[in-house]
Amino acid sequence: MQSFEHSFKAMGGPCKIHVISSHEKTAVAALAACEAEVRRLESKYSRYREGSVTTAINSAAGVEAVEIDKETAGLLAYADTAWRESAGLFDLTSGLLRQAWDFRSGKIPDPELVKSLLRKVGWKRLRWTKTSAFLQEAGMELDFGGCVKEYATDSAAGILRNRGIDHALVDLAGDMASVGGRGDGEPWVIGIRHPNSPAHAAATLELSGQALASSGDYERAIEFEGNRYGHILNPRTGWPVQGFAAVSVSAPQCLVAGSAATVAMLKPQEESLQWLSRLGLPWVAVDPAGEVFSDELLGRGHG
Predict the structure, then answer these.
(1) How far apart are CA 145 and CA 139, in angstroms?
(2) In the chain, at which residue ranges do the beta strands (DSSP E only) sit?
(3) How far apart are CA 170 and CA 212, in angstroms?
(4) For 251, which of 177, 203, 230, 296 is 20 to 30 Å away at the CA?
(5) Is 263 part of any domain?
């Protein structure tokens, strides 16, 4: 068995795919197919691409419905379920709020600007079927960024399985999916980075066929008049949440892990702990003071 690694940049960050196989040609071809799939999905759903589905839907907001395919309808169906299960906290129309928040400026936005943008946020005002999608008000925006990287992670792992790869790890800028273990009978061991000490792990997690996704506000934040404002925004208020600094969740699919971690970040800390405990999935969370909370299935317990 040989180890093959392929690195590239996509989805806004560094990507790495690690394959263990006894067939070099099979491994190399599978790695190329994975990158092609990730780039296909980036091109299809990026809000920055002129020809993307996202741009088409947003450009037609308040005017007309846009034809969509089965894949896009599937993503919208998942987003709808996540919206309902999170009582509206997971909302793919809330990306519009970034127009108010510039985390490089060091300043908080005008509250009136936030209020005006909030009027155009609301999942209920997206009308969609299996074949079309329509944002009801001009100026509204749909942003698949809340789920497409996790979906791409799962899709890449599926390609590896379909090509006969039994041992692999897909890592798209921290969103991960494993195909089996490492091939030597051991799982993939993943360190969960501590937000207050990036060189150290808050916990470790073993993956063997599972996925892992993380959400955190420690990389983009504003310190203003003694208060800290992270980049994860509550779609109900338009303002940053005041809960955990970081949350990681493991699940059979990265898409599920990602939305679970995001919802946990959007809840107040105590409410988030109760919600995570009811999930029945391995998780680890770190509060702004650096205290680690963890499901018992993770490598370490409470810090």
Answers:
(1) 18
(2) 2-10, 13-21, 66-67, 126-128, 132-135, 167-172, 175-179, 188-194, 197-207, 211-216, 221-224, 227-230, 246-251, 283-286, 292-294
(3) 10
(4) 230
(5) no
Q: Reduce the DSSP state of residue 57 to 3 states and report it.
A: helix
Per-residue confidence (pLDDT) for residue 219, from 0 to 100: 65
Give the domain range for residue 132.
53-142
- Report yes or no on 15 lying in a domain: no
User: What pTM does this model have?
Assistant: 0.93
Three-class DSSP category at 104 = coil
CATH of the domain at 71: 1.10.3980.10
Domain membership flag for residue 92: yes
Contact, 77 vs 133, CB < 8 A? no
Average pLDDT on 151-156 reads: 98
| pLDDT score, position 203 | 86
State how many domains the chain has. Answer: 1
Give a yes or no: residue 27 inside a domain: no
